[in-house]
Amino acid sequence: MAAALVRPRNNRMIAGVCAGLARRFGTTPATMRVIFVLSCLLPGPQFLVYLALWILLPTENNSTGASTW
Question: pTM of this prediction?
Answer without folding.
Answer: 0.77
